[in-house]
Amino acid sequence: MAHLNNPFSPRFGLEYAPTSFLVRFGNRELFVCRDFRKRYYKVNPILDCSTGIEAGHVELLLLRRWLVILSRAR
Length: 74
Description:
Elements: E1 2-5, E2 20-25, E3 28-34, E4 47-51, E5 58-62, E6 66-72
Antiparallel strand pairs: 1-2, 2-3, 3-6, 4-5, 5-6
């Protein structure tokens, strides 16, 4: 069962993003928000994948707008 949590911890640094949500699947988390960071490299228009801010995080940028962060739950 997935748990929906709205108050975010500051570990993502995105707790003030207006349109965001966090879904927890057992010991995994899926965080989705609008991307507001300035990218200093050419971004793939459909899907861009990179390492996250913390160890063990994967960031997916969908359609240059939505940032999806996959991580382990704490």
